[in-house]
Amino acid sequence: YVPSLSSSSELGRAGRVEQIVLKTLGYDHDMTERREERHRVDALIAERLTASPYVLNIYGYCANSALFEFASGGTLRSLEKDGILGQWDSAQKIHVAYQAAAAIADLHDIDHDGIPSALHGDIDTSQIVSVSANADNNSNKKKAFKLNDFNGARLLYIRDPKHSSSSNKHKRICPVKPSLYGGSHRSPEDYNSEKITEKSDVYSLGNLIYTILVGKGPYAAKKHYSDAQKLIRKGHRDAIPSVYTTQSKDPLVAALVKAINMCWEQSARKRSPAREVARTLRAAMYNSDYEEPA
Predict the structure, then answer these.
(1) Contacts for 88 with CB less than 8 Å, ≥ 6 apart
(2) Is 2 helix (H, G, I), strand (E, B) or coil?
(3) Are 123 and 149 within 8 A, CB to CB?
């Protein structure tokens, strides 16, 4: 990262000193047209999403390098590994889950509300970062979590109405081939090597919310990713522990469970849009005794 840049001269905010991140090509990677295109898409999407409070800020870009906001609080994955997610109460959990869902919804609606124009393609806990200096459980400060890393993202196109019998723009979205296949956080269609849409991200959002709720990711007991992938292809999901379902009367926990199920539909068409998932979480937050972290 690039430390101690004066924001009065570098970023236009007088009197503040900020840390920013220089993201560039790995020293052991050759500069190729494909890599340059991935970095271009990363910067393009980040720039178009600067209005979203749920996406990491970008300050500049050139070829294979870009300047980004510094995530001082680490990633959701690091908090998971440290056991901190399991210490959060339901208010903190739904607050973070909402931010993640809203970020993905903003990405999908980057051009038009309700008409997906891009997908992330690699949603997991390592892509959600905290810009708060105090992301530990003992902090009373508000925790801001943001989505980042779009160099695996795909731009989506809509078929010309002249070549489509449907007047519904959602049905005219052109699916794309998945570019990544590893891990256990992707959708059934990813692991079936089928073409995907933004609904692939929605499935991964369900895994993300599950991790926030339970404190560890689904399929954590599996030793090999291939074992989890087989289960995902067959429609198997890790059961949500009963402490969060039949044994819980917390409306915030119930909303988190509902959101997971909205995302985990085996059929991509039956999955709810990310915006609908975000609205479900937000409604629960403001229709209960929820108190936003101060």
Answers:
(1) 96, 137, 212
(2) strand
(3) no
Low-confidence ranges of the chain (pLDDT < 70): 1-17, 132-142, 160-171, 180-181, 289-294
Q: State if pTM tops 0.70.
A: yes
Q: How far apart are CA 16 and CA 52, in angstroms?
A: 22
Distance CA 211, CA 88 (A): 12
Angle at 68 between CA 87 and CA 184, to 5 degrees: 50
Instruction: Report the first-to-last Cα separation within the chain, whole angstroms.
Output: 29
> What token pair was written down for 37?
């295109």
Which DSSP helix (H) or strand (E) runs through 130?
Answer: strand 128-130
CA distances from 162 to 38, 117, 165, 166, 169 (A): 31, 20, 8, 10, 13
DSSP letters along 161-222, please?
A: GGG-S---GGGGEE-B--S---SS-S-HHHHTT--B-THHHHHHHHHHHHHHHHSS-TTTT-
The CA distance from 75 to 149, in Å, is: 12
